[in-house]
Amino acid sequence: MKTAPLKTSIATVSIAGTLREKFAAIAAAGFDGIEIFENDFLAFDGSPREVGAMARDHGLAITLFQPFRDFEGMPEPHRTRAFDRAERKFDLMEALGTDLVLVCSSVSPIALGGIDRIAADFYALGERAAKRGLRVGYEALAWGRHVNDHRDAWEVVRRADHPNVGLILDSFHSLSRKIESDTIRAIPGDKIFFLQLADAPLIDMDLLYWSRHFRTMPGEGDLPVVDFMRAVAATGYSGPLSLEIFNDQFRGGSPQAISVDGHRSLMWLMDRVRREEPDIRIEVPPMPGPRRLEAVEFVEFATDEQGEKDLEKDLFRFGFTKTALHRSKAVTLWHQGEISILVNRETTGHARAAFEAHGTTVCDIGLRVDDARATFERAVALGALGADKPAGPGELAIPAIRGLRGGLIHFLDKSEELSRFREIDFLPLDPPAPQPRPVGLSRVDHLAQTMAAEDMPGWVLFYTTLFQTRKTPVQDVVDPAGLIRSQVIESLDGGPRITLNGAENRRTLAGRFLVEGPGCSIQHLAFQTKDMFASAEALRQNGFQPLEISRNYYDDLEARLGLDPALTDRLREEHILQDQSGEGAYLQLYGRTWGDGFFFEIVERSGGYDGYGAPNASFRIAAQNRQARTSLGKSG
């Protein structure tokens, strides 16, 4: 079966900025074309020919001009005026250098229904477009007055039976009305003139408001966009795949970042469809499939000499032992169970830049995957920036990429060399460092990234397109100063988890971390133990001071969960929080925050508990805020 190269496009309405800024960001992200949204053109201070030239200068084709509203089914004299308006749009299209206009189904209260009447209008419009070498695409708005279903829009196009009139499909308009995607498969691919794609979270609200404010990139929401795209691919459609995203947060975000996220979403979508629909006619850049995420292999902190002393005190209290020094860098290795912590006090390079910008901070994470090189190749194919650097003498070359906001992510696997990176890149301490009392921490349960709320969809997309993961529903966590949006990315087979916390208010704990610290970074690490009370005892003997939880919490906990009073007393004494789900239980013990709000957590899971102690989050935040006020008072 003949294939056609994949062409990507995005509507200018999808990102923030002036038209010039949008063009630059869209081109830099790797798109082939753009949809010109009329309002963006009207706000621009140049002529349509200048806009067309500007697009071409950026290597972008103008794939569509849109929208042309309230055209079909109009009574006279409005019908004549609609055709006059169409001719004006055709003039504009010719000057822009595009041949396709989107006509969306009418919402006018005076529009008349009737498939034959509407089809006749489109035949007449097609005749006018043909004289000028232009094409007309008809799209069913989900809230259209008479046509709000792509099946009816297709029937209009079919009856119009004009070579210059075709169908435009929009995933949101179809999926928001729960129209079966398989109904698309019977439409001839050459009569689908254009395809617009958008996802959205499942929200029960007015369709127009939902569409105008909450669309997301494919893969960021909850709609079955993959099924929709599979159905379109089955028709033989080989035109552009274009994003039309109305989203308040995107309009206030970075046009560069949103554009990169958009291009990543299309690459992921078509790779997914190619794997599920082998007869697809659109060529997709080859890439390895989603990789299995197995473990957090290491977490690396950037710091200086004084910061290293403070951090090492904390690591010792948590039962970590300093075991090795890097062969060529000022990096020490701390180890416990399957957990490796690297402390980097280099005076040049990425770690130093991270420290100078944010103080002591996590600057790099190492993830163990099923195939490190394949993971790197997939990440780059999805738009990540490679960060491979030449290895020093006797050191490993570990595949690495830049995260969405500049942090490093290294990939390791169980291959002969990469599985031995501690032995190869590090030299054992001689003499050995002092040993803390064993605490019993076994592995990283989860790591938590804090970011601005508008960055969360991009991070969700980043992880779910790269790895074999699933996302949990978004939850609101109550901070006394406002809400924090939280969502978890979970490995499919019990591997590590990543919690994403989006701060909407800079007065919240997460928001202060963003203001004072990194723009998007690891704010806390959670380690697993099999015996929380034994760990708490060992921690105390190592000099650990827990985050102090309100005594009122435990009185409520005992009544709410029906706990034995003796157990409640033990929890209160050790400042351990508890949550339950069915037969499962979850214990949490927090260290005090340091730096700009970073903290360690210890967790114990039992009985199949699979959550994160969400009911306890507000009490933990309140305790951290009390600690911050106390520390401020002492320093004052």
Description:
With 636 residues, the protein is of the alpha/beta class. It folds into three domains: 4-283, Divalent-metal-dependent TIM barrel enzymes (TIM Barrel); 293-428, 2,3-Dihydroxybiphenyl 1,2-Dioxygenase, domain 1 (Roll); 441-635, 2,3-Dihydroxybiphenyl 1,2-Dioxygenase, domain 1 (Roll). It is 36% helix and 25% strand. It contains 21 helices and 27 strands. The strands form four sheets. Strands 19, 20, 21, 22, 23, 24, 25, 26 and 27 form a nine-stranded mixed β-sheet that branches. α1 (19-28) crosses α11 and α9 (225-234) packs across α11 (255-276). The protein is elongated, with a radius of gyration of 28 Å. The termini are far apart.
Secondary-structure topology with pairs:
Blueprint: E1 4-5, E2 8-11, H1 19-28, E3 33-37, H2 38-42, H3 48-57, E4 61-68, H4 78-96, E5 100-104, H5 115-131, E6 135-139, H6 150-160, E7 165-170, H7 171-175, E8 192-197, H8 207-214, H9 225-234, E9 241-243, H10 248-251, H11 255-276, E10 282-283, E11 293-302, H12 305-317, E12 321-326, E13 331-336, E14 339-344, H13 349-358, E15 361-369, H14 372-381, E16 400-402, E17 408-412, H15 421-425, E18 426-428, E19 441-452, H16 456-466, E20 469-471, E21 475-479, E22 482-491, E23 497-503, H17 509-516, E24 520-529, H18 532-541, H19 551-561, H20 565-574, E25 577-581, E26 584-590, E27 599-606, H21 617-635
Parallel strand pairs: 1-10, 2-3, 2-9, 3-4, 4-5, 5-6, 6-7, 7-8, 8-9, 11-14, 15-17, 19-23, 24-27
Antiparallel strand pairs: 11-15, 12-13, 12-18, 13-14, 16-17, 19-24, 20-22, 21-22, 22-23, 25-26, 26-27
Helix pairs in contact: 1-11, 3-4, 5-6, 9-11, 11-16, 19-20
